[in-house]
Amino acid sequence: MIEIPSETSSARSPGNPRILIVGNAGQLGRELERTFTGFGTIVAVDRESVDLGDSDQTRALVRRSAPDIILNAAAYTAVDRAETDSALAHAINARAPRILAEEAFLRKALLVHYSTDYVYDGSKPGPWIESDAPNPLNVYGASKLAGEQAIKNTCGNHLIFRTSWVYGPHGNNFLLTILRLARERDRLSIVADQIGAPTSSIELARATYTIVTGCLAGHFGPPQDWCGLYHMTCAGSVSWFGFAQAIFARAAGLLDIKAPELIPVATRDYPARAVRPRNSILSNAKLHARFGVPLRLWESALEEVLKTLKAEG
Predict the structure, then answer these.
(1) Closest by CA position to 173, among listed 97, 237, 272, 243
(2) Region label for 197, one of left (φ > 0), alpha (ψ between -120 and 50) or beta (otherwise)
């Protein structure tokens, strides 16, 4: 048996949806809970509440919480560790989403799921579009792709948002890691030949809210018009090295931190167990065409996250 945490009720009418947020302790889950508070009745769970590696617990979670919307922000994201922990990565990133999709289908609920740029091999010279053939280079990417396919195969109402380089004011991410390392070291080596779009958890949550509430209100037509897979990232692109430079350039005036010397390195010179794609740029054209929801430039989103860190002390 699992215990469902207490609900967060809104002041709106009882007819508003019940929203299950899976993975609310993570960087995206926290922002989703904050953003959706006031829209309906929220049931939020984290790894302490339910083991997504346990199929029975995952299925029981949905049946006991009885949601109208499932926001699945949970994932196995330890990319390098997944290379030797493939079974657990697939259990959380592929099997659990399949179960969530099956239960959502039975309840006629909407499932919102997040995937990754790592489903691609990075070989394309331009931005990736949803119809490009996936070819993951590592176990993490393969497990996330399997999760996408499992959801699609249920034929239920779903939205899959592929995103990239997610960071935010909470959780484990590149931004918080290098800010911490800057307090410990004078020099940091950062990969300079992988390109992508840093995407803030705040922007992801905002865009998700706009799209989900619009879908439920009928603004985008019947489900068959909007169900499916979309890329969702902040606008623009940069290397990890460029992102690090931007972080310290903007953090200097906001946070009590001294910028370390940044050393650009090639992927081949940076030790990592899992292979990463060189080009992770995702085209948002389909998202914009269907929903008209733009995400801000990554530089602007970064400034907001840094200001949030300053405000939270």
Answers:
(1) 243
(2) beta
Which residues carry out catalysis? 140
Cα separations in angstroms, 55 against 23, 42, 64, 98, 127: 16, 22, 14, 10, 36
Confidence class for position 178, pLDDT limits 50, 70, 90: very high
Distance in angstroms (rounded) separating the CA atoms of residues 120 and 309: 32
Q: For the chain, report the end-to-end CA distance as a whole number of angstroms.
A: 39
Domains in the chain, CATH or no CATH each: 18-172+198-235+281-295 (3.40.50.720)
How far apart CA 234 and CA 29 sit, in angstroms, is: 18
Give the β-pairing of 228-231 and 158-163.
parallel
**pLDDT confidence of 8, banded at 50, 70, 90?**
very low
Q: What pLDDT digit, counting tens, does each position of 215-225 carry?
A: 999 999 999 99
What distance lies between CA 286 and its chain's CA centroid? 18
Please tell me whether residue 282 adopts helix, strand or coil conformation: strand
With a CB cutoff of 8 Å and minimum separation 6, the contacts of 293 are 207, 210, 211, 287
Please report which confidence band the pLDDT of residue 10 belongs to, taking 50, 70 and 90 as the band edges.
very low
Structure tokens that stand for 190 in this block: 């950062």
Work out the number of other CB atoms within 10 angstroms of the CB of residue 131.
7
Please check whether residue 60 is in contact with residue 1, taking contact to mean a CB–CB distance below 8 angstroms.
Answer: yes
Percentage helix, strand, coil, to 5, in the chain? 40, 20, 40
Is 197 within 8 Å of 248 (Cβ atoms)? Answer: no
